[in-house]
Amino acid sequence: AQSVTQLDSQVPVFEEAPVELRCNYSSSVSVYLFWYVQYPNQGLQLLLKYLSGSTLVKGINGFEAEFNKSQTSFHLRKPSVHISDTAEYFCAVSNTGTASKLTFGTGTRLQVTL
Amino acid sequence: DVKVTQSSRYLVKRTGEKVFLECVQDMDHENMFWYRQDPGLGLRLIYFSYDVKMKEKGDIPEGYSVSREKKERFSLILESASTNQTSMYLCASRPGTGGREQYFGPGTRLTVT
């Protein structure tokens, strides 16, 4: 079984400031990791994913995340946020088997203000 | 682009009614999923399907059933809706091989009164 912890339920930040959204996971097997974004009244959209290879993953909208196996973390970062980044962000993990399911964290609400 | 559509964006039903939520994907994906999303709880898996006529229970299947008669369509059924099933329901699909990401529909916000 696996689990995901997003410790911060809300993160307020000023526009053009950097931001980090934290994600830690627990699993006894190899994993794939994902970050999704949900804008108000919409479904989830994939931001980025880690399957294998380089531990630094770049995604859409200037976001990136780093897979740290020793710390079982997959934190999401952006060097300069914009008002339009205001949304809910979900971290998710799956095992690497063919019949894998996604396990989601509880989400982090990023609120960007002027 | 993958497109996952859900039959309704907003739905209001009465307690005890039978409710059908429909999901259709246009990318020939083998796998389809139903989640409910509640504040502070994230997304929780209700049911999923790896093939036509196949279904597997997720983490919270109680009070729900599903149907997958065609590859592109996955229906969630609330046999007798209750107020604690008021929630946002999200459908997703994923190919059987390749990348593991799931593609989500826009969601159906269901209110049971």
Secondary-structure blueprint:
The complex is a heterodimer of chains A (114) and B (113).
Chain A lengths: L2 E3 L4 E5 L4 E3 L2 E3 L4 E8 L5 E7 L5 E3 L5 E5 L4 E6 L8 E9 L7 E2 L3 E6 L1
Parallel strand pairs in A: 2-12
Antiparallel strand pairs in A: 1-4, 3-9, 5-6, 5-10, 7-8, 8-9, 10-11, 10-12
Chain B lengths: L3 E3 L3 E4 L5 E7 L5 E8 L3 E8 L6 E2 L7 E6 L2 E6 L8 E8 L8 E2 L3 E5 L1
Descriptive account of the structure:
The complex is a heterodimer of chains A (114) and B (113). In chain A, the strands form 3 sheets. In chain A, strands 2, 5, 6, 10, 11 and 12 form a 6-stranded mixed sheet that branches. In chain A, strands 3-9-8-7 form a 4-stranded antiparallel sheet, with no helix packed on it. Chain A has no helices and 12 strands. Chain B is mainly beta and 113 residues long. Chain B has no helices and 11 strands. In chain B, strands 2, 4, 5, 6, 9, 10 and 11 form a 7-stranded mixed sheet that branches. The mean pLDDT of chain B is 93.
Give a short synopsis of this structure.
The complex is a heterodimer of chains A (114) and B (113). Helices cover 0% and strands 53% of the residues of chain A.
- Show unreliable segments of chain B: none
Give me the secondary-structure category of chain A: mainly beta
CA gyration radius of chain A, whole angstroms? 14 Å
What sequence of helices (H) and strands (E) makes up the elements of chain A? EEEEEEEEEEEE
The best one-word shape of chain A is globular
- Poorly predicted regions of chain A are none
How large is the share of residues in beta strands of chain A? over 45%
* End-to-end Cα distance of chain B: 37 Å
State the major sheet of chain A.
6 strands, mixed
Structural class of chain B: mainly beta
Number of helices of chain B: 0
The number of E-state strands of chain A comes to 12
State mean pLDDT of chain A (0 to 100 scale).
93
Essential attributes:
A: 114 residues, mainly beta, six-stranded mixed beta sheet, four-stranded antiparallel beta sheet, 53% strand, B: 113 residues, 11 strands
